[in-house]
């Protein structure tokens, strides 16, 4: 059974990591959730990093919205002032609390201290840990999802070795190492 997960903007910034995470979601290993504020942050920040143009990231976000039409969380704004985590990420925790998810995936774990998430029964996972958990829980789904993703890619990464290198640079080195050592094909 798929479980709901709230994805912070930082998980969606890099294309290789975003594609990896959402390809696994397409295999129904989990149900992703996010808010307009999260997607707006991706739209605002990614072009500044030089990773993609505003048009490219806009197209990617439109594709994400089409692929996961039921993932948008709304009606959380009233909770933002009550959140006690990092000011700039209170909208993330408020949206997570409003969503069906009880797991928040983020690189910014320090922005979501235990004292802020425990009252809402939210657990916070680093993307590396999250992906490793899925590889352990759903290995067939993960390998199928990644194989399908690589087959449809027109530009790199188009093989597991290249994908592992991209993911290593994206901040999920343990998952990248697992891909290098465990690919069944």
Q: How confident is the prediction overall: mean pLDDT? A: 94
Roughly what fraction of the amino acids lie in strands? Answer: 5-15%
Determine the number of helices (DSSP H or I, runs of at least 4 residues). Answer: 10
Helix content: 55-70%
Specify the biggest β-sheet.
5 strands, parallel
In CATH terms, what is the architecture of the largest domain? 3-Layer(aba) Sandwich
The N- to C-terminal Cα distance equals: 26 Å
**What is the highest CATH level, the class of the largest domain?**
Alpha Beta
Cα-based radius of gyration, to the nearest Å: 16 Å
Say how many strands there are: 5
Shape: globular
Question: Can you give a write-up of this model?
Answer:
- The protein folds into 2 domains: 3-126, 5'-nuclease (Rossmann fold, 3-Layer(aba) Sandwich), CATH 3.40.50.1010; 131-182, no CATH class.
- Helix content is 55%, strand content 10%.
- It has helices at 9-12, 15-26, 36-49, 54-67, 90-98, 114-117, 127-137, 139-152, 160-169, 173-182, and strands spanning 3-7, 30-35, 72-73, 103-105, 123-125.
- It has a 5-stranded parallel sheet with strand order 3-2-1-4-5, sandwiched between helices.
- Helix 3 (36-49) runs antiparallel to helix 4, helix 7 crosses helix 8 and helix 7 (127-137) packs parallel to helix 10 (173-182).
């Amino acid at each position: 059974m798929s479980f709901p997960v709230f994805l912070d903007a930082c998980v969606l910034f890099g294309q290789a990591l975003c594609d990896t995470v959402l390809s696994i979601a397409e295999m129904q290993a989990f149900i992703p959730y996010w808010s307009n504020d999260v997607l707006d942050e991706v739209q605002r920040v990614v072009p500044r990093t030089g990773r993609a143009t505003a048009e490219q990231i806009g197209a990617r976000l439109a594709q994400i919205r089409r692929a996961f039409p039921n993932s948008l969380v709304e009606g959380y704004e009233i909770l933002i002032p009550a959140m006690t985590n990092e000011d700039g990420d209170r909208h993330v925790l408020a949206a997570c609390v409003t969503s069906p998810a009880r797991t928040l995936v983020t690189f910014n774990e320090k922005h979501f201290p235990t004292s802020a998430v425990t009252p809402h029964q939210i657990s916070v996972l680093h993307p590396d840990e999250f992906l490793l958990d899925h590889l352990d829980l759903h290995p067939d789904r993960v390998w199928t999802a990644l194989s399908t993703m690589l087959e449809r890619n027109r530009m790199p990464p188009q093989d597991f070795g290249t994908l592992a290198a991209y993911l290593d640079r994206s901040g999920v080195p343990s998952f990248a190492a697992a891909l290098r050592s465990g690919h069944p094909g």
